[in-house]
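User: Could you write out the 3D structure of this protein bound to ribose-5-phosphate? I've included everything you need below.
Assistant: Certainly. Input first, then the structure.
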Amino acid sequence: MIVIGGSSCQDLASKVAEKLGTKAAKLEIRRFPDGEKYLRVLEDVKGDEVVVIQSIHHTPDELLFEYLLIVDTLKDLRVKRVHSFIPYFAYARQDERFNAGEALSFKTVGKLMKTVGTDEIFTIDIHQHRVLKSAEVFGIPTRDLSAMPLLADYVRAKGELENPLVIGPDADAERWAKLAADQLKADYDVFEKKRLSSEKVEVKPRKSDAKGRDVLIVDDIISTGGTIVEATKTLFAQGAHKVVVACTHPILAGDALERIRHAGAADIIGTDTIPGPISLVSVAPLIAQTVRQM
Ligand code: R5P
């Protein structure tokens, strides 16, 4: 098994390779003077099973194109199979035509990944709210993994929270709240959320009462931080004792981190699906374990 990381996942690929007792294969990636991308696979891969790891974030179009170059080249070099891990999968949110004439970007991305020869795709806490089976859209096997147990383990090991209540900030976060709560043997609930604009949301509690409780808020993505800020404020308004925040994909647009800290969160934890200042939990064990089970 050969592990190859695209330019968004070099560190993650090295960690996964190390866990599998191998080394990540090298790529040469640079730009031609006109800005076009040059890519070369620097290993003999013929006949091998290959794990490709590429998160598609921040510069999604560029990283997607690079992914397509990697897999198309590997297939041309006659590898046996390509098992792709896309820890952060951009365009998953545009899985429906919300207004007439819009691109179904999620479907287009899947089509491209299949066309270059991807044999199967693993995602991590993919942001899918309408299309629930990517395999039906992409036409190749897909499986969504979750980083929630790893995040919960980290929070437990840090020992910051006493008998925590786990909260998902909206109904779609219920599956993540449940996974984290199961791992922590804690109770959980979700808030009701109404999105007012891309930066502003309103949340209100459902059944749970956070009075005097330590709370762990879990979500798939922190983008502008608007959702977490409102959830944190609501919990403190209920009388919560302490709030810690955990997410799989810390996009952290603009001043998201400062806003969440300002709302009173004691700690903010994310994973390395998107490397950054709060990427304290690595998804490498999750990927390595999945590869071992293939
Ligand atoms: C929404 O459905 C997602 O699960 C996240 O809650 C959302 O993407 C977070 O975005 P923001 O940080 O901008 O509120």
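Residues 169-170, 172-173, 201, 219-227 surround ribose-5-phosphate (CB under 6 Å).
User: Perfect, thank you.
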